[in-house]
Design goal:
Distance between the termini: 33 Å
Largest sheet: 2 strands, parallel
Number of helices: 2
Structural class: alpha+beta
Shape: globular
Number of strands: 2
Number of domains: 1
Length: 50
């Protein structure tokens, strides 16, 4: 198997709860997008508070 870095695109991530869990558990790079600006702002604030 090739040694490749896994990347995930989380479409409709909401507030990022699942995104943060996956990133933590799997240790992978995740790009998250959502149509709700408020959800993205919340997720960003949550990320930077960690």
């Amino acid at each position: 198997m090739l040694n490749q870095k896994i990347k995930i695109l989380d479409i409709s991530c909401g507030t990022g709860h699942g995104t943060f869990m996956l990133s933590d558990i799997l240790g992978v790079e995740i790009t998250a997008i959502d149509i709700s600006k408020e959800s993205i702002i919340y997720a960003e604030q949550k990320l930077w508070s960690i």
